TrEMBL record:
Protein name, per record: Glucose-fructose oxidoreductase
One annotated GO molecular function: oxidoreductase activity
Keywords: Oxidoreductase
Keyword Oxidoreductase: yes
Residues in Gfo/Idh/MocA-like oxidoreductase N-terminal domain copies: 7-124
InterPro entries assigned: Gfo/Idh/MocA-like_OxRdtase_N, Gfo/Idh/MocA_oxidrdct_glycsds, GFO_IDH_MocA-like_dom, NAD(P)-bd_dom_sf
Boundaries of every GFO/IDH/MocA-like oxidoreductase domain copy: 134-253
UniProt-listed Gene3D superfamilies: Dihydrodipicolinate Reductase, domain 2, NAD(P)-binding Rossmann-like Domain
Length: 330
């Protein structure tokens, strides 16, 4: 007998939603059933495109559709309320990053998920990207020796007109380029090294043309294994970059995230052949499906999403105080 499909309802029909629907369509055992968004035009267009039901109210969607999985692709300040509602209806969750606005909110989500027996994957996509997976494999195989340090640089114009206002309001987003993209870099560094951030020292600036969030950040991190790492993020006009250099005792890797991977064991970088893999969103849904069927955890459980928010809180605390901050863990 064929295995029953799990239904997926998506909350939020914004920029990232298409990736969720494409992944759901590609993963065996999943079927999209509905989408909800306050924006009538947007939600109707998404529903028509994927042949599913449209709702303006996500609570009504969850009550009526009773989906097995709810994907939460909402502005950050709404992650908690949607996650609590989904958990109270026994739904599993694909919860977009960053998990919520604060550690306190993450704790509420974790508690509700435990009560509702909900499995959650927090969408830290970096774990699921082909170049990153290959880089981690090469690091773990010892190819570049012992890790010495990492530096990660991301430059992208953050204040473009097409960016929705909520991203640029601290109350609704939790922060600017560091909350949105810096969390990807922190996650990438922790995941590649298998070690966690224990100390941060930060400097940020606020010269954005819109909103009240920071537009750049320079982070010095120290990991629990003693390794130093630096993150440089710039959101003002300039040339786009997204590169991570991993320096070992026997070589170096250069990761151009989402693009390519480069290796040097002496001499100039040489491009590494990266095996084809499914899209990061497909791998995320497969991971969630596996956790649901096994009763285990996903590769990005809510405890990990919370950990990233705990670091982010210290990043901002360091920027305000001008002092290094230690990340405490539960
Ligand atoms: N994993 C990644 O690489 C990645 C990439 C982009 C965005 N994201 C994350 O995805 C999430 C959504 O980002 P986005 O870029 O799609 O944002 P967006 O602003 O484009 O979309 C958000 C949607 O939510 C809708 N919405 C707002 N309030 C609502 C409510 N109460 N009920 C129903 N709908 C409501 C808005 O109308 C909008 O259509 C964020 O957490 C973001 O950080 C992740």
């Amino acid at each position: 007998m064929a295995k029953a499909e799990l239904t997926v309802a998506v909350i939020g029909a914004g920029a990232i939603t298409g990736h969720h629907f494409s992944a759901v369509a590609a993963v065996e055992g999943l079927r999209a059933c509905a989408v909800a968004d306050l924006n009538k035009e947007r939600v109707e267009a998404a529903a028509a495109q994927y042949g599913i039901s449209a709702y303006l109210d996500y609570r009504e969607m969850i009550r009526r559709e009773r989906p097995d999985i709810v994907a939460i692709a909402l502005p950050h300040y709404l992650h908690k309320e949607a996650a609590l509602f989904a958990a109270s209806h026994g739904c599993h969750m694909m919860l977009e990053k960053p998990m919520a606005l604060s550690v306190a909110e993450c704790d509420e989500i974790i508690q509700a998920a435990q009560l509702g027996k909900s499995r959650i994957l927090v969408g830290h996509t970096q774990h699921y990207m082909a170049e990153n997976i290959q880089a981690k494999f090469m690091i773990d195989s010892g190819l570049i020796g012992d890790l010495v340090m990492i530096h990660d640089i991301r430059h992208t114009y953050y204040f473009q007109n097409s960016r929705p206002d909520w991203f640029l309001e601290k109350m609704r987003s939790g922060g600017g380029i560091l909350a949105n993209l810096g969390t990807h870099s922190i996650d990438k560094i922790q995941w590649l090294t298998g070690s966690r951030v224990r100390k941060v020292s930060t400097s940020i600036s606020h010269y954005g043309s819109r909103g009240d969030v920071e537009g750049s950040g320079l982070l010095y991190l120290e990991l629990e294994n003693g390794m130093p790492a630096a993150i440089v993020q710039g959101g003002y006009v300039g040339a786009a970059r997204n590169e991570t250099e991993i320096i070992g005792t026997k070589g170096m890797l250069m990761l151009k995230t989402g693009d390519s991977l480069w290796l040097s064991t002496g001499g100039p970088y040489v491009r590494v052949e990266v095996p084809h893999s499914a899209s990061p969103f497909e791998l995320q849904y497969k991971d969630l499906l596996q956790a649901i069927s096994s009763g285990g955890e996903t590769g990005c459980p809510p405890s990990y999403g919370r950990d990233i928010i705990a670091i982010l809180e210290k990043v901002y605390a360091s920027a305000v105080s001008g002092k290094e901050q230690y990340v405490e863990r539960a």
